[in-house]
Design brief:
36% of the residues lie in helices and 19% in strands. With 158 residues, the chain is α/β, with parallel strands linked by helices. The longest helix is centred in the last third of the chain and has 13 residues.
Amino acid sequence: MHGVIGFTPGVFDLFHVGHLDVLRRSARSCDRLVVGVWSDELAERVHGARPVVPLLERMEIVGNVRGVHDVVPLEEAALRPAWDAVGFGVVFTGADASPGDSAGSAGSAASAERELEGTGVRVVRFTDLAETRSPVLRERIRLSRAGGAGAAPRTSVA
């Protein structure tokens, strides 16, 4: 295979402009983009709650984003097993990504670099991503169901 294979892992629940932003930037920065989508069980182990959207549906959504060449399910958060399976040359993370965030399941660029040390994989950290995040959406949904403050719609920054 020719060209650079890029990889970005995440939960990709409640798909939003922040997800789209990281996928677009990732696709522009490699020749072939593979996206790892965390299983429902992995997301629940790490975050304490199952995703709202089931794995197969999240994979279908992500796989239909322009620039995404392949989508693989992930049963563990570690990047090394994904690298063994996919053979990516670059991994994409977001600024200060938390574990399970769409922008990098390794937790941060620094932890991705430590985990992938010796593989030759380049770690690209995106900054200035669209500010919408799944935890923000989950909280807004919770508040709107409870009829609480913060239920008003917000405008996008992207």
